[in-house]
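Re-running the complex after MR caught last week's input typo. The corrected sequence lines follow. Everything else is unchanged.
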Amino acid sequence: MILCVERDPYVRELETFFLTEAGFSVTFAEDGVKALELAQQLHPDVIITEILVPRLDGLALCRRLKSDPATSDIAVLVFSLLSAESRAEDAGADAFLHKPLSPQVLKERVRNVLLARSPKQAGKSSAVRELRS
Amino acid sequence: MSAAPDIIAAANSTTRISTGNREADLVLGGGFLPSSINIVMGEPGTGKTLFAEQLLFANADGDRPVLYLTTLSEPLSKVITYLQRFHFYDESKLGTAVLYEDVGAAMAEEGAGALVSHIRSAIETLGPKLIVVDSFKVIHDLSSSPREIRELISTLGGLLSAYETTTILVGEYRSEDIARYPEFAVADGIVEFARQKRTTTDERFLRVSKLRGSSYLEGLHAIHITADGVQVYPRLVSPAIPKGYRISDERVGTGISGLDEMLDGGLRRGTTSLVIGPTGSGKTTMGLQFALAAAAVNEPTLYVNFQENPTQLGNILNALDPAGRGEGRPYLHFLYSSAVELQIDRTIVEMFSIFEAQGIRRVVVDAVGDLAMAASDQQRIHDYLYALVQRFAVREITALLMLEDTASGPLGNAAPLEAFGRLSYICDNLILLQVNRGKRLRRSISIYKTRASHHDDKVHPFRITETGVHVE
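Corrected-run output:
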């Protein structure tokens, strides 16, 4: 499962279309606090987050996820309007992608972060199973 | 860190979308910004559709197609028929890398919203990297209310901004529409095409009015439509003066007997001299002598001419230099443009292209009055000539600019340039030719000004013979 943290309706629309088309199941949060709650409840394989989201920004969300043992294994892909690759890396993100959305690049980056996870985790992951199938 | 610098840095760091024309890219600071929404506007017949198609074919490579959507302005069949006349058209790309689709019927039936549905579907199924909508302005005719238009623009703007594609919205907009229509608020770039009517010919221009987060060359840039598409001639601007730039002490011979002595040994290299005289005073002969003298010492020289055609000029040249006739004069280059068809921006671009290709060291422009007549206003010609002289100086090109003095000529017409006084200060040296009409014509020459150099301040008579001008 992929959790997308995004408030732009057009980006959400395109993320849904292209990720679903690639075989992933997708759910959404419009702000960082909601995303943190959903991460704890649903434990998605990947979180794709914009930095510019309300209440808790994408980088702060990433730091909170990575510092909590219960969520630290969730791969985080920062997908932003900002050129903030190094800040995303400092926050512990697994990958960074600059907007706008390129379907090929987004799908490839999601695949890469899933495959880079530990084999143990990857074996349990429904997303990796979808990917391998 | 604030968001704006991050976004601008991102825009500047990415590769631009080429227009397919090097000079247009130059005007746009490298091309359109990737993933941007741009409006190409202008009245019918100004070249905007051709510009968009040229851009489309220039970007038709890689694994994602480019998409051209026609609405209700021109039938698709007409667009493609016309397109085939141009060199950039590539049959092999049509239907694969370049996709043409007609949305007109769907928009007529369902309203302007059909355009959004079509673009959404195209993004999901075709993944175009470039989308052209021609004409976008029809949304105003097909929408029932201003609110509907605003909603459509907002949806389309959001969709196109979210996806990695560059959009060109072509429309028959006028300048005043920029403040009226909401699409201009969402546009990242605005390129205007305009036509200026002159007595015998029209001049077409391109102007960039907006390019978010990027520098661009402001002002009107002349365009010309050829079989290669829209050719752009960027407005001449003054060059940056390089560090360590200094005026050369070296003198170059003029090839005119007696004149070098008046000039304390010749003209300083890299200076520009204005030679003013009435018709029949020998300006063309002097210009050709100057060019031949340069060619004789293997200095590549360009003679820019708007009056005598190449055959007429060849005859004068052969009379002055019979020995050079058979040798082809490899160091002498000519650029001829009829004064009637003259477009100053185009001439300047052609001149600089020859400068680059041939390593030109000297130039003669015969005559700047023709450039002034072709310019749409006096300020423009002043700015042009100033920038031109500065460029000559930076490149160390020694130049003669000829100017016909029609006020003191036999017909006694008004001076061609009201800005004559301003022109004289632009140039380093000012040489005056006079013809006194008595029983016999008596010609004389004087040096009115030389910048940073000594000169003879006497008026000298001179003769024109079959071998040229001779100062006594």
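None of the earlier attempt is carried over here. The interface with chain B takes residues 8-11, 13-14, 17-18, 52, 81-84, 87, 98-105 of chain A (CB under 8 Å). The mean pLDDT of chain A is 89.
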